[in-house]
Write a structure and sequence with these properties.
Strand content: over 45%
Keywords: Cell outer membrane, Ion transport, Iron, Iron transport, Membrane, Receptor, Signal, TonB box, Transmembrane, Transmembrane beta strand, Transport
Largest sheet: 22 strands, antiparallel, barrel
Membrane topology: Multi-pass membrane protein
Mean pLDDT: 92
Subcellular location: Cell outer membrane
Protein name: TonB-dependent receptor
Number of helices: 6
Oligomer: single chain
Number of strands: 48
Shape: globular
Structural class: mainly beta
Radius of gyration: 27 Å
Organism: Chryseobacterium tagetis
Helix content: under 10%
Length: 810
């Protein structure tokens, strides 16, 4: 509709006869862009022998991503699952499978990690980062030199570069609202305190909304502030900065759907686009503990990180073509994490009662809220998972650079100390299987209320604190790296890099025992003791036995590449890289009694590429091949056990990225896509039940073979622009076995929007998933059995939503 309106308006609008770029054009010419990520020195994009995508602040503004993950969907080679909400999403680089999070890429701010390990349990890197108007640009590198310039990043680097002040005072202020109760304001200010010497920038946002899925409470509430101060002198500069993030976000997890052939449709009573189990009527948990006291939690807190970051950067010209750069940062994070995790799929009343040991029809369900007896068609057991994490990270990157006629040499020492302590307290609750669930009690009517085991619940809780975990992990990283850029001829350049990682990890886990409240003197209802309920029969209690573990990693990563610049607009390159990722946190925890089972994940990647950049047309075509060894699978199941499998994989594919400005700036088209074939190799063994499996040659789980994004836009006038976008995500398998009942169907998601530039004021409307597509990004990796009959548990993308904003630049 927007495109047709734009074309029709063009034909009847005689004022559109200018060759100048429209004010709201989405692109800065790639031929002029300079990149720093994965390079020892800033260099033009066409001269960088890396697969790198860039987004300026203006481009990010036009896309107006609802989350950092939504922005990263525009990067080829990155398969991104955005269905978790604003945070807690998953990114898979070049077909590398994992339990989720950002396990094989490193998310950075200004060249240093948001947190050293971006895939700690329940600590996805995007939990600690938000995109706002203080971001100057994004550089997203795949594979290549990622393993030379960062740890645990064979899949790539994602570097958000923040704004700095200049001699001219500049600012932006934005107000945004939506169809789901959003109120958000963004502000950024920058300028000079002393001309040519001392510069400042400060920015941030505050936001509150009800969430696209109907939670009945404020799903997202909070914000951040970021500021920096930079002093420039004759031979360099010094910069200090601070960031404060305090935000609450609801995390959305799988919901029930009905399988209809190869499609997944709505489950009766559950809105696939707007429904969620995370609802106000079940949001409070308050239960006694076997060791005394009570444990309480409020689902409305959701994922609640409190992040403080203090950093500094220094550059100095030592003379004789030598320079030194030092970056340092301290990050402190306290995070409370509360989410509803389905424990399998919905069950009929009779089936669930039977699973709880009730025979025949001797069951009775009632609402916890008012005691009314009910007969729901289906009931649902839900995990009420609470995790507290205290994390800190001190990192320092010291780098020396020497420039000579034909290139430069960079040598660096990277030091990082980090620690994460976590406490888990998980319970299960029983609810109606609907998108506004209510807590249920279940009793055995063949018994009397004073009989042992009469009730299977305690105020809707079926398993009180059934899993408690207290564990800690620490990392100490000591890495040396060396990089050489050498211009063999004016057009042919060589790049080579090597990194030696001498890293040590240690941690502990506290053992647990089981107990109950039978002799606690407490009652379930003021009258009956806990003998009358089974809800407390297997409560976990922390013991006084600690299992300590230690693990050292000594690895060398390296890369080598050639880049041939055919002319100022065309270039080809080839690169080979070898990197690794240290074992992840859950792998250590699962094997802390015998760490011989785990090894670093090693990778080999070969890529070649062709790039063409001009002022009106860009294209990058990058075939790649990769192998991985010792890949660990560490999904935590709904019963608290872990998958704990290991495999090798291979993948070959093609990344395509393009942009065109056509018909005298009338039409703009951006495109990115990935074709790949990720397979398991030598993946055989025994599962937890003792059954033999052979997944050799199967397609890697949750990984599409084909996905792309295309966004055409029409510049109706110099001020008025309209666009549509399409995200296509190919068919995937939920599990390693590639079973037919665990197929995740392909889907297409459409968006559309329009903007109008009125002087320094920009008015915009952006719509997402405008056709209310039921698009599935993952099944339920925490429940191997996804549902009975035609019921499947899966996590769909958000339903249709519209946002409107007004932005003032000054």
């Amino acid at each position: 509709m927007f495109l047709l309106a734009g074309i029709a308006t063009l034909y009847f609008n005689n004022t559109y006869a200018q060759e100048t770029t429209p004010q709201d054009s989405t692109r800065t010419a790639s031929i002029d862009q300079v990149v720093i990520t994965g390079n020892s020195n800033p260099k033009k994009k066409i001269e960088s022998s890396t697969a790198i995508s860039t987004f300026t602040a203006k481009e990010i503004q036009k896309q107006n991503p609802i989350s950092a993950a939504a922005l990263l969907q525009r990067v080829p080679g990155f398969a991104v699952e955005t269905s978790g909400g604003e945070v807690g999403n998953n990114l898979f680089a070049r077909g590398i499978p994992s339990a989720g999070a950002y396990e094989f890429v490193q998310v950075q701010e200004d060249g240093l990690p948001v947190f050293e390990d971006g895939a700690l349990q329940f600590a996805n890197a995007d939990n600690f980062f938000r995109v706002d108007n203080s971001v100057s640009r994004l550089e997203a590198l795949r594979g290549g030199s990622g393993s030379i310039y960062a740890n645990n990043s064979p899949g790539g680097l994602i570097n958000f570069i923040t704004k700095e002040g200049s001699n001219d005072f500049k600012g932006t202020a934005k107000l945004e609202t939506s169809t789901y109760g959003l109120m958000r304001t963004d502000v950024n200010l920058g300028g000079a305190l002393v001309q040519d010497k001392l510069f400042f920038n400060v920015g941030g946002f505050y936001r509150t909304d009800n969430g696209i899925r109907k939670t009945g409470f404020k799903a997202n509430n909070g914000g951040q502030v970021r500021m920096n101060l930079k002093y420039v002198f004759d031979k360099g500069y010094a910069k200090v900065y601070y960031k404060k993030l305090d935000d609450r976000n609801t995390f959305f997890l799988p919901i029930p759907l009905s399988q209809n052939g190869n499609d997944l449709k709505e489950f009766p009573g559950f809105d696939a686009n707007y429904g969620t189990y995370s609802y106000r009527a079940i949001s409070q948990l308050n239960i006694p503990q076997a060791g005394g006291g009570f444990f309480n939690r409020n689902l409305e807190d959701g994922i609640h990180p409190r992040v403080d970051v203090l950093g500094a950067e220094f550059k100095y010209d030592l003379g004789n073509n030598f320079s030194v750069v030092n970056k340092t940062r301290y990050t402190n994070i306290n995070m409370n994490y509360t989410g509803i995790f389905p424990a399998g799929g919905p069950q009929t009343m009779a089936d669930f009662a039977q699973s709880e040991g009730i025979t025949g029809n001797n069951y009775q369900y009632s609402l916890v809220s008012n005691g009314a007896i009910v007969n729901p068609a289906y009931v649902q057991k839900l995990g009420f998972w609470a995790i507290d994490k205290q994390m800190n990270n001190f990192v320092n990157d010291l780098q020396f650079n020497y420039k000579f006629d034909k290139g430069n040499v960079t040598a660096g020492f990277y030091k990082s100390n980090w620690k994460s302590h976590q406490y888990w307290n998980w319970s299960n609750i029983l609810t109606t299987a609907m998108d506004r669930p209510e807590l249920l009690n279940l009793v055995d009517t063949s018994l009397t209320p004073s009989s042992t085991g009469y009730s299977k619940t305690y105020n809707g809780v079926t398993d009180m604190s059934f899993l408690v975990r207290d564990s800690q992990i620490q990392g100490s990283l000591n890495d040396l790296y060396l990089n050489l850029d050498y211009n063999i001829t004016d057009n042919l350049s060589f790049n080579g890099g090597i990194r030696y990682s001498k890293d040590s990890y240690k941690g502990y886990g506290v053992n647990t025992t089981t107990s109950n409240l039978n002799n606690s003197g407490l009652t379930t209802d003021g009258t009956h003791s806990f003998l009358t309920t089974t809800a407390d029969d297997n409560m976990a209690v922390l013991g006084n036995k600690y299992t300590y573990w230690y693990y050292d990693v000594n690895r060398v990563s390296f890369t080598t590449a050639l880049n041939y610049k055919i002319n100022k607009e065309n270039a080809v390159y080839a690169r080979f890289s070898n990197g690794f990722r240290s074992p992840n946190e859950e792998a250590y925890y699962n094997n802390m009694n015998d760490l011989s089972a785990i090894k670093p994940v090693t990778t080999n990647q070969l890529e070649v590429g062709y790039k063409y950049y001009s002022r009106t047309f860009d294209v990058a075509v990058i075939p790649f091949y990769s192998t991985l060894k010792n890949l660990s699978f560490t999904d935590v199941f709904s019963d608290g056990t872990s998958e704990n499998k290991f495999a090798n994989t291979t993948n070959y594919g093609l990344e395509l990225e393009g942009y065109a400005r056509l018909f005298n700036n009338l039409l703009e088209v951006t495109f990115n896509g990935t074709i790949q074939n990720p397979k398991y190799k030598n993946f055989t063994g025994m599962d937890a039940a003792g059954n033999f499996f052979d997944y050799d040659g199967n397609t890697v789980r949750r990984m599409p073979k084909f996905y792309f994004n295309i966004t055409p836009a029409v510049n109706i006038t110099k001020q008025w622009r309209a666009y549509v976008s399409m995200n296509y995500y190919g068919k995937r398998f939920q599990d390693e076995a590639n079973t037919d009942k665990n197929i995740l169907p392909s889907f297409s998601e459409f968006g559309a929007g329009t903007s109008y530039q009125l002087g320094k004021i920009r008015l915009a409307v952006d719509g997402t998933n405008i056709f209310n597509t039921i698009g599935i990004t993952e099944g339920d990796p925490r429940s191997p059995l996804t549902g009975t009959g035609d019921i499947r548990m899966a996590r769909p993308i958000m339903g249709a939503a519209v946002r409107a904003s007004i932005t003032l630049d000054f």
